[in-house]
Amino acid sequence: MGKDDQLSALEQEIEETRERLATTIDQLLYRSHPKTIVGREVADIKAHFVDRTTGQPRTDNILKAAGITVGVIAFFVVVRKVVK
User: Fold this and answer.
1) How many whole angstroms separate alpha carbon 40 and alpha carbon 33?
2) pLDDT tens digits for 11-35?
3) Which of 65, 71, 27 has the alpha carbon at shortest distance from 46?
4) Which of 4, 17, 50, 64 lies at a 20 to 30 A Cα distance from 75?
């Protein structure tokens, strides 16, 4: 293996490393973009209330969320009446 072959192999390795780094940076930029983050979070919240495989609503989680909401509202109504 001559000196030119070693330099050529080294240059090729450097170029491959640059390409991998560029791809990694592009992926990180995409993942950290605010719209991507919001989309991911919305999908997670929807998945909590809708089954991803069947598309059917998950009534157990919907009822839990509704119950908590009603409970919090009732709590504030009672506290407000007690304070007056």
Assistant:
1) 11
2) 999 999 999 999 999 999 999 999 9
3) 65
4) 50
